[in-house]
């Protein structure tokens, strides 16, 4: 198994399309903007394959220790998010962002990132490629972050030992489902939180595997209560239940179904694989989500010779041979974001441009709309002055009313850059709206 996973990792690193294909599958149980979560999942499976061979015998008790740590961290993370919202007078159901030195982290009740603050001690350079909670590190007390980090590392250890035990001692169908559920739950501890659908897709399967029929009943009942409650506090609840929660549950249950009945398992697997494409066709609003199917469609969009396109990158775009000629660097922020305008000399695609420039296509670095960008937000500044935001070269004009601001930005600015502009120091942003011409 280790050799096959190593080949998948190599394929993801050397081929963007191959990586997106793997991400398409992993996104069904663990959605992510970039390939980072896909690679983490593959590395997790690869190291498990080594530990199963070489690690000493593992007690079954580690599974129950792992199960005991999960609710402690999930509930603690939810309390942490609610404290953050209360401290800054934020609506818990709306997206808000903490921006620090241009690096930002967004959160909402059904997808919290506040627990990522425990990772803020990692090198700041990592924030250029993935969200490591750097911004939230300035919000919470350091002792709390160290306590969270210790508990999180204990949970990872308990998870790993539990999976080793299950892979050695349980039937393949049960052990594979347990490994998948364990990865999803640990991932959601810092990326998503307690109220993300991925957690409640995993809860019935995880509890059923550990505690038998009673676990299936309790876990299934809890998931049904969660699904029902969403209709009272979450817009688009029916689509989320049908196209996120249910496919995730079926995906995590498929190894069990396959072990019981091969035909049922094949049907379940087919439904799971088709579900992202079905979501794309049935729910137009979901096309802006970071699922791999949306990225694949974006990556293949035709860009015609003579078009002017814009490229957002970390660091300057180097002059490379190919269907483009960099004209000018419009803006470079303190965090390294650069906006470059490019005139195409041949037909191409965002995938080809991203590959030539070494950019991650999943971040959508190439845009081709020609109109200005409109941004509206409520900005709570802790340090610095408004002028540091309003005087930046990407801002064409602004309207300021108390702590609310409307900005008109130059063409080509994407959401990542627009948010970073609002935080030259430390600021909290909510009611953020980003729009640009079709």
Brief descriptors of the model:
438 residues, four-stranded antiparallel beta sheet, 10 strands, 52% helix
Describe the structure.
The chain has 438 residues and is α+β, with helices and mostly antiparallel strands. The chain has 3 domains: 185 residues, no CATH class; 108 residues, no CATH class; 132 residues, no CATH class. It is globular. It has 13 helices and 10 strands. The longest helix has 37 residues. α1 crosses α2 and α3 packs across α5.
Summarize the structure.
By secondary structure, the protein is α+β, with helices and mostly antiparallel strands. The chain has helices spanning 2-14, 16-26, 36-54, 61-87, 142-169, 172-190, 197-233, 237-260, 262-282, 292-299, 350-357, 386-390, 415-421, and strands spanning 96-100, 103-107, 308-314, 324-332, 337-344, 366-367, 373-381, 395-401, 404-409, 426-435.
Q: What's the helix-strand series?
A: HHHHEEHHHHHHEEEHEEHEEHE
Count of helical segments? 13
Mean pLDDT: 86
Number of separate structural domains: 3
Bin the helical content: 40-55%
Radius of gyration: 23 Å
**Principal-axis shape:** globular
Task: Calculate the terminal CA-CA distance, rounded to whole Å.
Answer: 46 Å
Low-confidence regions = none
Strand residue content: 15-25%
């Amino acid at each position: 198994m280790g050799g096959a996973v190593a080949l998948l990792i190599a394929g993801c690193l050397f081929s963007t399309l191959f990586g997106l294909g793997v991400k398409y599958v992993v996104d069904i149980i663990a959605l992510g903007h970039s390939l980072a979560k896909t690679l983490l999942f593959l590395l997790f499976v690869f190291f498990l394959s080594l530990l199963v061979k070489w690690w000493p015998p593992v007690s079954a008790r580690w599974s129950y220790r792992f199960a005991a740590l999960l609710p402690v961290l999930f509930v603690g993370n939810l309390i942490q998010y609610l404290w953050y919202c209360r401290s800054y007078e934020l609506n818990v159901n709306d997206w808000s962002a903490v921006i620090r030195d241009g690096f930002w982290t967004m959160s909402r009740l059904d997808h919290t990132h506040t627990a990522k603050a425990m990772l803020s001690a990692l090198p700041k350079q990592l924030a250029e490629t993935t969200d490591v909670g750097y911004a939230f590190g300035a919000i919470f007390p350091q002792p709390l972050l160290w306590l969270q980090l210790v508990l999180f590392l204990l949970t990872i250890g308990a998870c790993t030992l539990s999976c080793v035990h299950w892979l050695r001692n349980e039937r393949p169908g049960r052990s594979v489902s347990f490994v998948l559920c364990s990865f999803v739950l640990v991932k959601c501890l810092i990326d998503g939180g307690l109220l993300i659908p991925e957690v409640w897709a995993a809860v019935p399967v995880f509890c059923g595997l550990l505690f038998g029929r009673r676990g299936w009943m309790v876990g299934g009942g809890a998931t049904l209560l969660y699904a029902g409650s969403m209709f009272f506090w979450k817009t688009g609840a029916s689509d989320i239940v049908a196209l996120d929660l249910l496919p995730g549950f079926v995906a995590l249950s498929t190894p069990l179904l396959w072990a019981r009945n091969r035909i049922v398992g094949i049907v379940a697997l087919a439904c799971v694989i088709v579900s992202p494409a079905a979501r794309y066709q049935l729910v137009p609003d979901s096309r802006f989500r970071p699922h791999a199917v949306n990225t694949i469609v974006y990556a293949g969009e035709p860009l015609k010779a003579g078009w002017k396109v814009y490229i957002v990158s970390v660091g300057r775009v180097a002059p490379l041979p190919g269907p483009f000629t960099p004209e000018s660097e419009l803006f470079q922020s303190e965090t390294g974001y650069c906006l470059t305008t490019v005139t195409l000399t041949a037909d191409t695609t965002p995938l080809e441009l991203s590959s030539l420039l070494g950019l991650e296509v999943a971040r959508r670095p190439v845009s081709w709309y020609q109109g200005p960008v409109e941004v509206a937000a409520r900005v709570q500044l802790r340090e610095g002055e408004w002028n540091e935001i309003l005087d930046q070269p990407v801002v064409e004009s602004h309207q300021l009313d108390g702590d609310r601001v409307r900005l008109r930005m130059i063409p080509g600015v994407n959401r990542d850059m627009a948010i970073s502009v609002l935080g030259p120091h430390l600021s909290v942003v909510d009611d953020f709206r980003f729009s640009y011409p079709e």
